[in-house]
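Q: What would this chain look like folded?
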Amino acid sequence: MRIRPALRRDSGQVTIEFLGMTPTILVTLVVLWQLVLVGYTFTLAGNAADEAVRAGTASEGQAACEEAGLKHLPAAWEGGATVQCTASGGFVTADVSLDVPILFPGAFALPFTVDGHAGAVQEED
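A: My prediction, written as structure tokens:
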């Protein structure tokens, strides 16, 4: 059985096309993973605010409120986190700001932070 010359010329075409698409595939995966990190940061900010306000409503004080907000954060988010707790009129609020970590640190920085907010009525003794 003889292979026609026209078929023999296309034998490496799939390899060349795959090599050409590889950078596009990798960039797409990196962008998607960075978007996952942004979404996870929103989840962490909301949870940290909930934990902080829960500690604040138990009359544990401002320091305990801020500590509870930072307690469950992973190390990548803990460094740029700020927790502010306020209590007035029997109502406790907690505001958490988290910096979004970068998949490749040092390459560039994302220009935004994610904020979480929670509030609850203070418990009576």
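The longest helix spans residues 13-57.
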